[in-house]
Amino acid sequence: MCGIIAYTGNQNAAPILTASLRQLEYRGYDSSGIALVSRGKLKTYRAAGKLAQLENRLPNKISGKIGIGHTRWATHGEPNDQNAHPHTDTQGRISIIHNGIIENATELKRKLEAQGCVYTSETDSETIAHLISHSIISNPKMAFLDVVRLALKQLQGTYGLVVMNADAPETLIAARSGSPVIIGIGKDEMFVASDSAALSRYTREVVHLDDGEIASINAKGFEVTTLDAISMSKQSVMVDSSQLNYELGNYDNYMFKEIHEQPESIRRTLSGRLDHRFNTAHLGGLNMSPRDLMNVRRVCILGCGSAYYAGISGADMIETLARLPSKAEPAAEFRYRNPVIEPDTLYIVVSQSGETFDTLAALREIKRKGSHVLGVNNVVGSTIAREVDGGIYMHAGTEVSVASTKAYTSMLTCFALLALHLGRVRDLSPQQGEQLVNALEALPEKIKVALEQNQQIKQLAKKYHHINSAFFIGRTNAYPIALEGAQKLKEISYIHAEAYPASELKHGPLALISPQTPTIIILPDNDLLGKSISSLQEIRARKGPVIALTNAQNEDIHSLADDVMYTPNTHPILHPIIMGIPLQLFAYHCAIAMDRDIDQPRNLAKSVTVE
Ligand code: F6R
Questions:
Q1: Is the domain defined by 2-239 classed in CATH 3.60.20.10?
Q2: Within the chain, what is the greatest distance between any pair of CA atoms?
Q3: pLDDT interval class at 228 (50, 70, 90)
Q4: Could you report the per-residue pLDDT of 134-181, keeping only the tens digit for each?
Q5: Architecture of domain 452-601
Q6: Considering 2, 117, 414, 590, which one is annotated as catalytic?
Q7: Which of 130, 369, 434, 534 has a CA positioned 20 to 30 A from the CA of residue 361?
Q8: Annotation marks residue 304 as catalytic
């Protein structure tokens, strides 16, 4: 999504803005820009494409000790120079950067144009600059902060924004309604950003704005109030430095690095949480007593994309171990269908970034209706992590590649821990608990073994990367593995991929099986293996190529499948974690063979902070 950075202090702003935009680059965007106040004038530089395009366009020396910068992920208007932020009012005095969507922009534009404002872009964001400018003209005696408040009250939709005024060149105004904004505190200098990564070189001390808050910031400090001018007292927090210094090292891209970090990231997720004494998981952050957990009758997990798929596996783990009816639902669908919220249902929102708009909105809807919500989150201090009633941090470490890998497997690991904990509060026996505790402890080493297949999977990708379409199929707890496998392949290689429960194949998709359309069939070593092998046979009978992914030693699989990917065997609850690894590698090597942009696939963004 869009990235925001702003600076005011004693240094030249331009190099700070571009270096910070570089730190936001991983979030994915299609244009970027900066604006500065230099000798009383606004100077704006913008370019479509990657940050290098903007840097090529910047003069060698740009003066100005206050400035704003932005990376854009297009929502309104195509990604070109004109639509890039910052946007300016007609007089060229007000400059704004904005993350979010202004829903009443068309209506406001009509009025503002009638009053003489000249638009130069197709964006909804430009309206904010004109609206503020128009408020200044209509209220010439009003303080700048009050004018901005007045303008913002007219906006419908979401925003995280920063406003700069050439006529008040020592002050930045930042505001938040639905999109993250943090203030970075330096020595005689201050920053505003959408993400602490943007501030990594300059400060660890940050203040999070909450929805409905507006901050006036100068080099010496800041003041936070609400849109109704009520003063707010805000505490700064120190950002965990491991979140800030995350470099590529010797890897070619972050995705490959993050795939290989999984033994370590899973070890961190498990760290201090396995309890051998009572054969359970120790989860201190749930803020729920065993009695509270005993009263839970159902579990509902909400997330988006891969986090939703992790939620499907999580629901299966909880239902299997705790015998509680459990389901997962895409967060956006849930919030819009006026869901029945029950007091004895345990709601869990799952999100790597902790900023995904739809997941946050689902969380707020449940809380509004009075229920308790837990979070499975990676980013400490993120909006979702701050708003949930308790939860489990993944501790996967920073994830930069747009395609989630290590955060996904850490989500699954958190769910396995929670399922174990809920199970042991209920009917799971100490012996069953012990088996899972031991299996979880052994998991990081098994992931290492799964990663050793990298070269074989690279060869497999060479054989298959020319395909136009692929199916991924699996039964019961292998179905979400198939969903995530298809997701990884389509998002980074752009090969069309669809996932089905294996049992559904003959109810429709079998019509598409042909020698040109391979099927990746997930075959965990469980009671349903025989039935899944029958599905494999049905595909072979239609001359469809088959790649089997299995942890079973079964001769039939070898003789029937064209190719086989193996993983070590583990506790059946953990199959989705270990069997996801070869599918990540398969997608990765297909995308490499096709020369794709691995870390920033087209049209996608790392943190989806708009609806
Ligand atoms: C896919 C992927 C996305 C995210 C989704 C939710 O590889 O990364 O599908 O899983 O956008 O993001 P978070 O987990 O940040 O809420």
A1: yes
A2: 84
A3: very high
A4: 999 999 999 999 999 999 999 998 899 999 999 999 999 999 998 889
A5: 3-Layer(aba) Sandwich (3.40)
A6: 2
A7: 130
A8: no
Query: How buried is 53 (Cβ within 10 angstroms: 0-12 exposed, 13-18 middle, 19+ buried)?
Result: middle
Interatomic CA distance for residues 67 and 44, integer angstroms: 10
The structural domains of the chain, with segments of one domain joined by +, span 2-239, 241-448, 452-601
The DSSP string of 492-549 is HH--EEEEEEGGGGGGTGGGG--TTS-EEEEE-SSTTHHHHHHHHHHHHHTT--EEEE
Half-sphere exposure of 423 (CA within 13 A, CB side): 31
| Ligand 1 atom closest to residue 403's alpha carbon, by position in its atom list | 7
Active site residue 506: no
- What's the start-to-end Cα distance of the chain, in Å? 11
Q: What is the pLDDT of residues 374-387, one digit of tens each?
A: 999 998 888 999 99
- The predicted model gives 211-227 an average pLDDT of 97
Matching fold, domains 2-239 and 241-448: no
Pocket of ligand 1 (CB under 6 A): 304-307, 351-353, 356, 359, 403-404, 487, 491, 607-608
Contact between 216 and 137 under an 8 Å Cβ cutoff? The reply is no
Q: What CATH number has the domain spanning 241-448?
A: 3.40.50.10490
